[in-house]
Amino acid sequence: MTKIAKAKLAKLEKAGPDGKMKVGDFLSWWLDPKNGKVGVEYTDRKTGLLRKTSSFHSVTSGFNEAFRLYYGCDSEAVKKAITKAEGLKLISVRLVGKGANGKAVPGARISVYRDYGDSKGISALAEMGITFS
C-alpha cells in the first residue's frame, strides 16, 4: 500500500472507545501486504500464471468478525464504516458471492481505491497522438 493511501485511510475518525486505533488504521493494516491479507500469490485457473491478490474478502478473511470484536459493535456498524470509507474514496468495494450455488460466500472484496475513471482510455489515445476535435 502506498504512503498516500495510508495517509488517506488515517483520516477516518475513531469509531470505538478511547485507546482503539482509528478505522482507517484498522483498514490499512488489513490492506498491507506484509500482514498476509493481500499480496498472497496464487495460480490463475484460466491462464496458469502466478498472480498476487490485491483485495481481501470481508467474510472469509475474518475482517467483519475482527472489526466487530475490536470495536464492540454489530454488523450494521461494520457496513456503515466500510460504506463511509468507500464514499470518501479510500477503498474500493465490490460485492461478491450471492450464495445461490451453495459454494460462494456472500460478502465484499475490499481493495485500495484506484481512480481509473474514463481518463484511462483518453490518456492512452493521447499517448498514441490521437486527439479529439
Q: What's the layout of helices and strands?
A:
Layout (H helix, E strand, L loop, with lengths): L2 H7 L13 H9 L9 E3 L6 E3 L2 E3 L5 H9 L3 H13 L3 E6 L10 E6 L6 H9 L6
Antiparallel strand pairs: 1-2, 3-5, 4-5
Helix pairs in contact: 1-2
Tell me about this structure:
This protein has helices at residues 3-9, 23-31, 63-71, 75-87, 119-127; strands spanning 41-43, 50-52, 55-57, 91-96, 107-112. The protein contains 5 helices and 5 strands. The chain has one domain (3-127). By secondary structure, it is α+β, with helices and mostly antiparallel strands. The chain starts with a helix and ends in a 6-residue tail after the last helix. It has a 3-stranded antiparallel β-sheet with strand order 3-5-4, covered by helices on one side. Strands 1-2 form a two-stranded antiparallel sheet.
